[in-house]
Amino acid sequence: MRALFGSFRAELFGCLLVVAALSLLFPICYVRPVLNEALLQEAYDRLAHEAVLVEALLEFQGEKQDKKAVLAAVARADMRLTLLDAEGVVLADTGVQDSDLSDNHADRPEILDALQNGSGFAARFSNTLQQELVYAAFRLGDNTILRLATPFAGVRQRTNAQIGGFLLTAGILVALSLLLAWSFSRRLGKSLAGMARLVEGIARGNFARRLRYVPGREFRPLADAVNHMAQSLEDFVRTEADQAAQLNAILDTMAEGVLVLGPKGRIRRVNKAFTVAFSSVRHAEGAQIIEAVPCPELQEAVTSLLNEPDAYGQNRSLRITLEEKTVFFVLLARPTKEAADSLGLVAVFHDITELMRLETVRRDFVANVSHELRTPLTAVQGYAETLADMDDMPEQGRHFAAVIHKHSCFISGMVNELLTLSRLENDNFRLDVKSVNPREPLRAAAHMLSGALSEKKLSLEESFADGLLVAADPRHLEQVFRNLLENACRYAPEGSEIGVGAFARSNEALFAVSDQGCGIPLADKDRIFERFYRVEKHRGGGSGLGLAICKHIIECLNGRIWVESPSSGASTTFYFTIPLADKSAL
Questions:
Q1: What whole-number distance in Å separates Cα of residue 185 and Cα of residue 190?
Q2: What is residue 382's predicted lDDT score, i.e. its pLDDT?
């Protein structure tokens, strides 16, 4: 039933049927009573005119004392004539025999009106003739009452005849209306079906189709809107296809593997390089990343980044090693909040296996060479000292021996630093971490550099929080302080102050070593922690390994180190963090 009346054609037919029903009820409920009343009034008027004629005939025949001819003529005219006296007694009646004239009609409504007003009319059922009659009564000059009656059936027949003709006409008009409505709705249905086929074609990707014919001007805006929609969709799809082709070309030509994840962390798209590196991903669309890359650490990093509410627009990086000893550097990039509904994050995989192998070779080479150089350097230093202490050595020879000793000591220090870096970079290297008061390593480092501090008349100002304890290796923390203070001594102006401060924040301690030196150029700030890197224009001396050693030690202690130059209250300040010692474990 719902499907039947849910169509436009059914609704149109239903509306027309309702209108037709109302149009047929109108003559029955309104026109019929009005028409019946009009026909009654016409019957009354006819009876009134005939009463005048009958009265004249009665007066004419009355002079001859013969009224039976008049009564017979009225009876032949299918009319009932009744004569009554002023008291309502029937004197003559064409509808009854003479023996029944004893009936008194004074209570009849038409007789009462005639006695009072001179005329009276009524339509009622006659008990005498057992049928409905239309009555018209008139008072004559001699106070007798003349009443004429005609059957009501004639009025009803005329009413039914006219109502029947009206209903027939209305039915024909309704039928024609329904036929026209069916024709119009069929034509309209074809047009709408054409529009529906066009929209379905557009939905299937046939954007070249257009509406050329519409059933009327009213549908022209709809047709124009559908054509405009088709054109817009065609342009949009073409643009999207071009962009998708460009994106695919870019992704497939990249050497790095690219993995696109949805908002819930499921795989949506990969490029060719990724499928080469991870063949299992070919059938992993819609799966979690761990099903394509068997690395729990990567899955945890992805889940953590997706679950952080404030991580929109942020990047994370990690290094993973797979069972095949393949090493990847993975960059996880989460999009902005505007794109978070359709895109979770993008992971870029850099295969650094060969790079790590070369780095291992380099470390081993540096460690081996440094170790091998220690013995000849020790011999060079010893022979240089021996030559310098010989009694018969000329002064120029002593000078050459001192130069040899100085440079051999520099090279020996560099070799020791390289060996230290090699130990720190070794995956098996572990620091002896314990609870340390940082004042003690600082003072040990300051004592070793007391000569350099005195030579330039530098003062060391400590500002440590009371009771500060950190989780560190005291020997290596002393080396960090020594390298940072050595840099400060080398570049701080004579007679200036070097500041060292530390305070606790959250679960870590923040250290700051500042000097009033010339500062570090902005272009060099990001590279000063690289090994052998030095700012040649502004700084001299040193091997360029001290800050690299500091960075490795701090990272081994789960901290971080950075520099600000210029900084607040100083030209250069080195900051580093170290976790606080767990006092509950002491």
A1: 8
A2: 78
What would the two tokens of residue 60 be? 């004419």
- Calculate ∠ Cα 432-474-566, nearest 5°: 120
DSSP string across 500-519: EEEEEETTEEEEEEEE-S--
Q: Which two tokens stand for residue 537?
A: 């224009």
Band (63; pLDDT cuts 50, 70, 90):
very low
End-to-end CA distance of the chain: give it in Å, rounded: 83
Q: Over the stretch 83-131, which tens digit does the pLDDT of each residue have?
A: 777 777 777 777 665 545 556 777 788 778 777 777 777 777 666 666 6
**Other residues' Cβ atoms within 10 Å of the Cβ of residue 292:** 23
- What are the beta bridge partners of residue 574? 513, 563
Spatial strand order of the sheet with 561-564 comes to 459-464, 497-505, 508-515, 572-579, 561-564
d(CA 307, CA 475): 40
Mean pLDDT of 24-46: 66
As given in the structure block, the two tokens for residue 22 are: 């109302």
User: Any idea how long the chain is?
Assistant: 586
Kindly give, in sequence order, each residue whose CB lies less than 8 Å from that of residue 360, ignoring residues fewer than 6 positions away.
Answer: none
Sheet of 131-139, strands arranged across: 90-93, 80-84, 145-151, 131-139, 119-126
Give 469's DSSP letter. Answer: -
Cβ burial of 107 (10 Å; 0-12, 13-18, 19+) is: exposed
Give the span between the Cα atoms of 23 and 29, in whole angstroms: 10
Q: Which of 401, 371, 404 is nearest to 389 (CA)?
A: 401
| DSSP SS3 for 396 | helix
Contact 312, 337 (CB under 8 A): yes
| Pair 442, 482: CB distance under 8 Å | no
Contact between residue 94 and residue 71 where contact means Cβ atoms under 8 Å apart = yes
DSSP state of 541: S
Ramachandran quadrant class, 495 (left: phi over 0; alpha: psi -120 to 50; beta: rest): left
- Condensed to tens digits (0 to 9), the pLDDT of residues 188-223 reads 777 777 777 777 777 777 767 676 666 666 667 777
52-66, 434-448, 534-548: the lowest-pLDDT one: 52-66
Domains of the chain: 8-159 (3.30.450.20), 254-351 (3.30.450.20), 356-425 (1.10.287), 434-585 (3.30.565.10)
**Number of alpha carbons in the 13 Å side-chain half-sphere of residue 527:** 9
Q: Does residue 313 come out as left (phi exceeding 0), alpha (psi in the -120 to 50 range) or beta?
A: left
Predicted model pTM:
0.48
Is a pLDDT exceeding 80 seen at residue 446? Answer: yes
